[in-house]
């Protein structure tokens, strides 16, 4: 759960430190006092987008630090351990920190180790669940009903694998579908493509480019273009190495080797020198042999020279035409051949992929049907659970039906084949209608609270925050909501920002947000209230601007009633 929050230079909060306890905590204050600062600051620590407007005026830097203590089996601890982010001295403790600057930069830390904001948000989503007024708006939109139902269905642990299987089958089908569509589009232009490729291949056939050939041709052209010069050089080289009568290299090294070999009879130390010179003599003889062979094949060949020039010219002409290097023509030629063969087999390929697509669609439909059955079972359970919870919230005659019907469009989708709509009747005899046609704001708040209560068991979050989610209700309904939140706090930490004294009277702890203004600046403070201060604040919430003694008496009675209801539940 959330243990401590330190906020520095966020909106009106210059420096605010808050200690949180387990159970049910209420946060109240005058309108405009800065209650939203708490959510904004906590949102930053949870990885939400860093809005520069949150930076306190005149400050260059702001930060938020949130300290949690988690159960040893919480999934966040496992993720931190896998990334080597755990606190070895206290593995269940977790510090989240966010720092933002005036220049728009934002940095995130987990246990004082830098992390990405994305990973911080991933961790934050598993720690804190925020229910706000916008959730009632989402409840009116049918596109959110599937998400709510799937979240409830997943409490069995068997629903998510079905969702994943449907998504996987859809992706397989979509890949095949896109491929088939592409082939069919190509088939419409196949005749033109074949004519184009045949023309290009026919023109290229005269060259029949080979990999590495341009470089080889240029090397041969270079040699044939300078035959006379090469011949003269080879003749001089052979003379120096072997054909001079008295001083050729071969003759000189041979005589030197013999002299050393004679000398090593007198001094064995000359053996290595004799061996080296003899080896040099043999190497020169080998070079001479290779030079003679090279010289023998050097001859003027005007016809071959012309052939080389013409072929190189063809390489360059076609390379210019197709805007590539001469060395790339062989690869291009091969690609055309492969494309031509593919076009010849296009019909067969399309037919084969079409069969595979149909099979994938059949598998998707089968899995989607299993998902639909799971949703129908969950829909019945959700409706019964909500109706039961609404009886405690003074909507005893409410009927909820989760209508699940097949989509008119049979094309596979990643979410299955169901259209899901919540229908409600709040009064006996009233027909079942969509929520936006029937439910009032107060009724929606209670329906949402009932649903969130049912979904809470499947949430890993250890802290639930209700941000004025009780809007539109009052009297005994507000008291019932407060009691429901207090019961929910038996299994996890619950925080509620509220204007309702009936809800505030149910709290285990009460935090008051106040705004202080001077000629210099304005700041927000948050303080813990003792029993007497709680009574005064609940009285203020009852009376409005001026707190009367009658309001204080009513506040004490309301708090005593809350305690008696809690003791009796």
**Unreliable stretches covering 5 or more consecutive residues:** none
What is the strand content? 15-25%
CA distance, first residue to last residue:
24 Å
Let me know the average pLDDT: 86
Query: Strands across the major sheet, in which order?
Result: 2-1-4-5-6-7
Structural class: alpha/beta
Q: Please tally the β strands and state the result.
A: 15
Work out the helix count: 20
Please, could you describe this protein's structure?
With 569 residues, this protein is α/β, with parallel strands linked by helices. 56% of the residues lie in helices and 17% in strands. It is built from 20 helices and 15 strands. The protein has helices at residues 35-45, 75-82, 117-125, 133-140, 142-153, 159-188, 190-205, 213-224, 227-243, 249-263, 271-297, 302-321, 329-344, 346-392, 435-438, 441-455, 475-488, 501-504, 531-543, 549-568; strands at residues 2-10, 13-19, 24-29, 61-69, 93-101, 106-110, 113-115, 128-132, 399-406, 418-425, 433-434, 463-467, 493-497, 509-517, 522-528. It has a six-stranded antiparallel β-sheet. A six-stranded mixed β-sheet has the order 8-12-13-3-14-15. Strands 9-10-11 form a three-stranded antiparallel β-sheet. α4 (133-140) crosses α16 and α14 (346-392) packs across α16. The longest helix is centred in the middle third of the chain and has 47 residues, at 346-392. It is elongated.
